[in-house]
Amino acid sequence: MTAEERHISVWNHFLKMVADIVEPQKFQNWFTKVRPVSLVDSTLTVEVPSDFVREYLETFYLDVIKKTLKRVIGADAKLIYNVRAVSSQPVIKLPAAPGVPPVNREVSIPTQPVGSPSPFVYTGLQKVRINPNLNPVYCFSNFIVGDCNKMGYTAGTAIAGAPGKTFNPLFIFGGPGLGKTHLAQAIGIAVHEKYPDLVVRYLNGHEFKMQYVDAVTVRNKLNDFLALYKKIDVLIVDDIQDLQSPGAQGAFFSIFNYLHQSGKQLIFTSDRPPVELQNFEERLLSRFKWGLSVELLHPDYNTRLQMLQALCRREGVTMGQEVLEYLASRIKTNFRELEGAFLSVMAYATTNHAENSVELAARVTEKIVSSPVSELSIGRVQASVCEYFGISSEELVSKSRKRQIVQARQIAMYLCRTLLPNCSLSTIGAQTGGKDHATVLHSCNIVSDMMATDRSFKKYVSDLASRLAPAE
Questions:
Q1: ω before 169 within 30° of 0 (cis)?
Q2: Nearest Cα to 382, choosing from 413, 355, 406?
Q3: Phi and psi for 36 in degrees, rounded to 5?
Q4: pLDDT tens digit string along 365-418?
Q5: Whole-angstrom Cα distance, residue 188 to residue 133?
Q6: 259-294 pLDDT tens trace
Q7: DSSP code for 41
Q8: Could you give the CA distance from residue 143 to residue 178 in angstroms, rounded to a whole number?
């Protein structure tokens, strides 16, 4: 075997071993797109299609990659990534022109005859236009990118460039006001601009459920309903957690399978990750996990400040930098509340002919947000638990199996889950020593069971919850 062929043989051996460890769909999504470049001594160089892929592999599969490479190459194995050259991310273009709402081309669907037609009678064809239901303001040009949403943005632009080819389905989750709807619609708008012949459709889970009920109980046109949705090339369903209807889920399962097998793009948003969805069929939940799940986090200070500056340009108004900095430091929860505070300050200043000042911003926002003392976070919950049990923060998030530390760790996760409903299990686990969502859920169940049977244990949890509760 020549030196040129050795790196290919080593990589193929590596892939074969990884395929036995990683889920088939994940393996297909992330590892098959990597190409071996060279092998010098114990250093293997590979090429990845984007920096996003490299970052994802290192985040979620670093341990698997390290151990497998050592088994294939040896203890000194090293891996170097070469990232294919890609165009830079689009810049934010403001002010944002509303533009023209996207319009889909007409599609033909077979109509359902009334009654039980003869199998020798052909159904008719009906030309319809599917409303994409996209708001042109929710475009990528108006999407503020930060550490809180960078992975979602990168995945979204990749999908917009080649819908149905990668990250399918894309599952976007996070708390309210973090940009899930904006990101999902931005993908749809970008697809429509690049591929105007593709049929794009955006709707929410409740709307789909009502359409299904109407098709079944009122119009008796379930087949027309299914045929219509199977003509869609990019289906975006917002707030998928609201699709809690067995009948609607059955219809959606049929549509999902047809579109996915046909190479069509599916995009979902939810206020929680797939593993935490309640009252969903298991077969549907498993399909939500096929592609990429991306969490949108709370924006940091710099991202909040960028959004306020963008709002100034979009609205064509002037606001002092110190006022923007005050708002960015005061409103920490989400983009929606931040925009609401900004517009409230502007409205008050305009109505009362007042100057935009920090004092005015403080008066307007004092009833919008709570005082900093009462703000609750995972870090604050963990600090209170550590103080209560007399352990260090390092011990709390460690892998120690000492009974006291394990108990404190489980209580901390339970309190985070109870007192911070917008925090997902995966977020809590990530900030508790890198635990996965299953570990967090198991810990919460243990604490619930212990509280029901052990009075002393229940008192620990109640005392901590009282300490963390905001003052009246």
A1: yes
A2: 413
A3: -70, 140
A4: 776 665 444 467 888 899 889 988 888 888 999 988 898 999 999 999 999 988
A5: 10
A6: 999 999 999 999 888 888 888 989 999 999 888 999
A7: T
A8: 11
